[in-house]
Amino acid sequence: DAKTTQPTSMDCAEGRAANLPCNHSTISGNEYVYWYRQIHSQGPQYIIHGLKNNETNEMASLIITEDRKSSTLILPHATLRDTAVYYCIVRSGGTSYGKLTFGQGTILTVHP
Amino acid sequence: EAEVAQSPRYKITEKSQAVAFWCDPISGHATLYWYRQILGQGPELLVQFQDESVVDDSQLPKDRFSAERLKGVDSTLKIQPAELGDSAMYLCASSLVGERGFYEQYFGPGTRLTVT
Fold this sequence. Notes:
The complex is a heterodimer.
Chain A (H helix, E strand, L loop, with lengths): L8 E5 L4 E6 L7 E8 L6 E6 L4 E2 L4 E4 L5 E6 L8 E9 L13 E6 L1
Parallel strand pairs in A: 1-9
Antiparallel strand pairs in A: 2-7, 3-4, 3-8, 5-6, 6-7, 8-9
Chain B lengths: L4 E3 L2 E4 L5 E6 L6 E7 L6 E7 L2 E4 L8 E4 L6 E5 L8 E8 L10 E2 L3 E5 L1
Parallel strand pairs in B: 2-11
Antiparallel strand pairs in B: 1-3, 3-8, 4-5, 4-9, 5-6, 7-8, 9-10, 9-11
């Protein structure tokens, strides 16, 4: 699976959009981009995933560049409860097989 | 909403002792994962089950760690003997299985192990 690079930490004001970047320059054609987050003392939680098209669900939007070498997770109206570690993961295929390879992630702090 | 259950939530043990963790996945989820998360790092897969069979245990320290899922439902992870470096959060996750389509992994709350 391709490696990802994320900023170590980011801050965001409550109510504003949080834009979390991820670089995955070695991604291959059949690899998906997944985002999970981990709130303190809890297990990771799935947010969203995509292949090449932009995706949106009730939690967030995922913007993938045309060359697929980077992506951005957008939380449109961040709340204090969105403070967490956000993991960008690249994995082959769209199946449930295989492990998730977590990196260090981005610590997002949402402040009042 | 169905959840992955884990117990105990916290465990303190002395080095060289045996310790065991239990996981009950979401009903109907054939795939079960055990991850270890050291403080400040992301989770790392230890073992993956498909029903009762191990499909990936390449990162499991087999000299001291063992895992089983006898009836393809709940699972136990054991460490014997525990070492100071085993102090970590042990996370269990489960998912549906399929060759096509995406099935997200649902994580339990984890067991925080402290070895003294």
